[in-house]
């Protein structure tokens, strides 16, 4: 017998869970360096373009599909056409794959929250983090094997996540978000205010915001913008579809979507201001330019930030604790949303208990996550990340727009559905965008990625 579908307790619970999914490591750890590397202030142009031509339309598409067809990814597609169930599995698999390495970065942040008490990383923050030099001992996470420094944070986090997920959408995910999101907002406001009031902050802001318009001619910048919008808004992974399927029948969709999208971008900009303010401070302290202290990628959060905290004018443990703690909190509310699409998908398919599905999905992800901690494991992490974000996601998103817009031709039905339940009515722009602009833009991105990889 089919089980009764889980439900959020309130609409606010859903909006919080959706925002909690969106706001994550992507906002705090990823956005600042992506914006910096791709035109600074000018990055806002491709960013908003991507948000309007793909981000918001696909977000609403996922909401409306999950809500109307009341299913996880595979079930929602199947209810439109049996032949397209695979696409739901594809998207849920991508979410699962991300969860396997997202947890690793979360575990670094968790360890660093602890290390920030008394700045345990010492003077040489780079040497401390240096995970890529195999065989070097006494580093924080040396990938030389499964040692307690690696396994312990992973085990604690997985244990906690397991307990949350076992309690279900309402008792687990919704409750987690209700508690963590308000705390997270306060933490981020404190970090931003402190970052912006440091000496030299203005120089950091200048570097983040000064537009380099020549970047707009580079198609890589546009790819980066689309990539950032998809990852940050959690779209293209059947996540929002799954979350929307837990909404009661008559729940607003469009207004909730706009709140989640605006909240996510607002959060992203605010954090970037605070972080670049702090980078300006570090540059002033070390007597160099901001460009010299900004390290791209992973290093920004785990090498440069500890250095800033070392030089902080008082209460540095507290600032470190706030920064890394905010990474952990935001990451927790996101990782549950990376696991839920898989859990819901196998429950919908095989009609099994939540307990069984949670054991299978979390057990699987936890096992794979250990792989990245073995010797040379960081290479697998890069490989999977590249596959998911460069190909897997775009293939899924192009297929999704083509299927719903053309093959199954359901956009008008879904538009009516949204307008029946929502406060804010959406117009024909939504259908037009998803039918033409979004697939064309995404297919161009996919082609550009293939050319870049194989030229
Ligand atoms: N949006 C999350 C972040 O910015 O960190 C990551 C994420 C969560 C991506 C859920 C995809 C997803 F389905």
Structure explained in plain terms:
The protein has helices at 11-22, 25-37, 44-69, 73-80, 85-115, 125-129, 148-166, 168-196, 201-209, 219-233, 239-244, 254-286, 290-293, 298-310, 316-350, 354-371, 377-407, 411-421, 428-454. With 455 residues, it is mainly alpha-helical. α3 runs antiparallel to α12 (254-286), α14 runs antiparallel to α15 and α15 packs across α16. It is globular, with a radius of gyration of 21 Å. The chain starts with 10 loop residues before the first helix and ends with a helix. Bound molecules: 4-fluoro-L-phenylalanine. 4-fluoro-L-phenylalanine is lined by residues 21-22, 24-27, 95, 98, 231-232, 234, 237, 239, 334, 337-338.
Task: Show the helix and strand layout.
Blueprint: H1 11-22, H2 25-37, H3 44-69, H4 73-80, H5 85-115, H6 125-129, H7 148-166, H8 168-196, H9 201-209, H10 219-233, H11 239-244, H12 254-286, H13 290-293, H14 298-310, H15 316-350, H16 354-371, H17 377-407, H18 411-421, H19 428-454
Bound molecules: 4-fluoro-L-phenylalanine (PFF).
Keywords: Membrane, Transmembrane, Transmembrane helix, Transport
Main location: membrane
Membrane topology: Multi-pass membrane protein
CATH topology: Hydantoin permease
What's the level 1 CATH class? Answer: Mainly Alpha
Helix content: over 70%
Strand/helix succession: HHHHHHHHHHHHHHHHHHH
Approximately what portion of the residues adopt beta-strand conformation?
A: under 5%
Number of strands: 0
**CATH architecture call:** Orthogonal Bundle
Mean pLDDT: 91
Helix tally equals 19
How many angstroms does the end-to-end distance come to?
Answer: 54 Å
- Uncertain parts: 132-138
* Structural class assignment: mainly alpha
């Amino acid at each position: 017998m089919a089980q009764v579908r889980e439900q959020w307790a309130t609409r606010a619970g859903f909006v919080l869970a959706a925002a909690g999914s969106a706001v994550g490591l992507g906002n705090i750890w990823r956005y600042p360096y992506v914006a910096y590397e791709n035109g600074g202030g000018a990055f806002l142009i491709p960013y908003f373009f991507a948000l309007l031509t793909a981000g918001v339309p696909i977000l609403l598409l996922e909401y409306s599909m999950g809500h109307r067809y009341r299913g996880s990814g595979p079930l929602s597609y199947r209810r439109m056409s049996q032949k397209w169930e695979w696409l739901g599995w594809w998207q849920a698999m991508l979410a699962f794959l991300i969860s396997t390495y997202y947890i690793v970065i979360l575990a670094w942040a968790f360890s660093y929250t602890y290390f920030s008490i008394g700045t345990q990383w010492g003077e040489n923050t780079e040497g401390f983090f240096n995970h890529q030099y195999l065989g070097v001992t006494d580093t924080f996470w040396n990938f030389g094997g499964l040692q307690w420094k690696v396994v312990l944070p992973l085990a604690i986090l997985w244990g906690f996540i397991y307990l949350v997920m076992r309690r279900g959408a309402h008792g687990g995910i919704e409750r987690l978000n209700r508690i963590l999101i308000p705390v997270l907002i306060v933490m981020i406001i404190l970090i931003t205010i402190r970052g912006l009031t440091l000496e030299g902050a203005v120089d950091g802001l200048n570097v983040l915001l000064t537009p380099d318009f020549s970047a707009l001619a580079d198609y890589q910048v546009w790819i980066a913008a689309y990539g950032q919008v998809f990852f940050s808004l959690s779209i293209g992974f059947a996540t929002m579809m799954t979350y929307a399927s837990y909404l009661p029948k008559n729940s607003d969709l469009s207004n909730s979507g706009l709140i989640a999208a605006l909240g996510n971008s607002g959060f992203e900009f605010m954090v970037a201001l605070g972080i670049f303010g702090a980078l300006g401070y570090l540059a002033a302290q070390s007597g160099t330019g901001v460009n010299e202290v900004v390290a791209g990628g992973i290093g920004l959060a785990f090498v440069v930030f500890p250095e800033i905290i070392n030089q902080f004018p008082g209460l540095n443990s507290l600032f470190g604790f706030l920064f890394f703690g905010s990474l952990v909190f935001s990451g927790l509310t996101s990782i549950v949303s990376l696991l839920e699409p898989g859990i819901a998908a196998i429950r919908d398919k095989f009609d099994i208990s939540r307990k069984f599905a949670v054991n299978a999905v979390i057990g699987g992800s936890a096992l794979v996550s250990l792989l990245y901690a073995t010797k040379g494991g960081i290479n697998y992490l890069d490989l999977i990340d590249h596959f998911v974000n460069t190909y897997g996601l775009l293939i899924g998103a192009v297929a999704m727009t083509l299927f719903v817009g053309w093959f199954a031709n359901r956009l008008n039905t879904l538009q009516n559905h949204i307008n029946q339940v929502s406060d804010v009515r959406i117009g024909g722009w939504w259908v037009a965008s998803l039918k033409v602009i979004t697939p064309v833009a995404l297919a161009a991105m996919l082609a550009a990625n293939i050319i870049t990889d194989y030229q």
